[in-house]
Amino acid sequence: MQELFEIPEEYEAMLKKGIGLTGNDKHFFIRGRLDLLENKTSLKNAPKRILDFGCGTGATSEILLQRFPTSEIVGSDLSEPALAYAREKIQNQNIRFIALDKLQEEAEFDLIYLNCVIHHVPVAERQAVIDQLFSLLSATGTLWIFENNPANPGTRWAMYRNPFDKGVVKIWPSELKKLLQIAGLKTEAAYFIFYFPQWLSWFRPLEKFFLKIPMGGQYALVAQKFIKAPDQA
């Protein structure tokens, strides 16, 4: 996997170059993703353990902590500078930041969250990453993968402008579903979000009706492990 955040202080400037055309900052998109997650996930209780896989500088991990203050949250990334930045910025007993190669030492997670990670993984390595996520997910846990939607022209332009998206290979929902299935994960739902930029924000209340229309700026696949019937066990 590609290391993206070797200079964390420059991350904001790079990100703004990509998403600046929308008129929104990263927190708008983080909140939108987590709003969808909370609205569409049947959580009788807060997840005991949450993994922010590919956490970067920890912005989403911090908001996950705000949303699920009783959960243990683990942020993990390839970039040690990004992790060091997150550790310094976010200090709470319920959150830790660890290197990806330390994840095999962790217990299983009840909720795993990824945003724009898979398209940064070389195509030949993507199945191995999904297989790893399978091994990290508890038997009843839920995996939420958010990715940029290649079908959306605005997203394609934003990725073209974004320095750390240079040279990446986009991944379509159908491709990601296949990887999940091979790993032993069943796609329970697919959603499409972020249709309108800030200058068309008055249309955003309509987006809840567009979740199944495959043209949003991002898509989310929600997956769980296949549960075998007793006679198949």
Keywords:
233 residues, alpha/beta, Rossmann fold, seven-stranded mixed beta sheet, globular, disordered C terminus
What does this structure look like?
This protein has helices at about 10-20, 25-40, 60-65, 80-90, 125-135, 155-160, 175-185, and strands at about 50-55, 70-75, 95-100, 110-115, 135-150, 185-195, 220-225. The chain is α/β, with parallel strands linked by helices. The protein has a single domain, classed as Vaccinia Virus protein VP39 (Rossmann fold, 3-Layer(aba) Sandwich). The protein has a seven-stranded mixed sheet with strand order 3-2-1-4-5-7-6, with helices on both faces. The radius of gyration is 17 Å and the shape is globular. About 35% of the residues are buried. Residues about 230-233 have low confidence and may be disordered.
Shape summary: globular
Cα Rg:
17 Å
Would you identify the CATH architecture? 3-Layer(aba) Sandwich
CATH class bucket: Alpha Beta
Strand order of the largest sheet: 3-2-1-4-5-7-6
The share of residues in extended strands comes to 15-25%
Mean pLDDT: 88
Helix content: 25-40%
Order of helices and strands: HHEHEHEEHEHHEE
Quaternary structure type: single chain
How many domain regions? 1
The count of DSSP E runs of length 2 or more, i.e. the number of strands, is: 7
Low-confidence stretches: 229-233
Within CATH, the superfamily carries the name Vaccinia Virus protein VP39
